[in-house]
Amino acid sequence: MKQTLDTVWQRRGTSWVWDEEARNQVCEAGQVWSLRLFLQSVGNWPEDLPSNDNNTLVVAGLEASLDLLTPDDAEAWLGDAIKEAILSFQDFYGGEAALIFWLPAGQGRIKFHPATDSIEWRCAAPSSESLLAFGRILWGEANEYPQEILLREGSKPAGLFHLRIT
User: Fold this and answer.
1) If both were cysteines, with which of 27, 36, 74, 159 could 69 make a disulfide (CB 3.0 to 4.6 Å apart)?
2) What Rg do the C-alpha atoms of the chain give, in angstroms?
């Protein structure tokens, strides 16, 4: 998987971030939107975004919501409601804003397969043996596009960045 040290993820595209330092680079805690508010805003996006000089929207709650669903329901919900909301956000802002999903435990839940460049999400108990095809569901296995976000050379990945989901 490609890696990026560039800060473009802070201003464009969609990211899934699990590193607190990375999240703090783009927003203050009070600027984070709930997943509920994010989904309610589909089709009615604000002109001004709350974070990073009007460039970024950080959303929390995706991880907890996935944990409440069965693997089959989580897959359907990701592919329908969440992907639709991401596409709506991208379209409204014309690719000129960043959408960041804050996933505090994401590093332990996102599983990357180097041989195929596929990305999966490990479900919570009691379905912890189940994996959701995260990349296939959200970006249609366009595996050349997601990049691991690095905050500095040699650091562990802070998240995943995708410039444009189609």
Assistant:
1) 74
2) 15
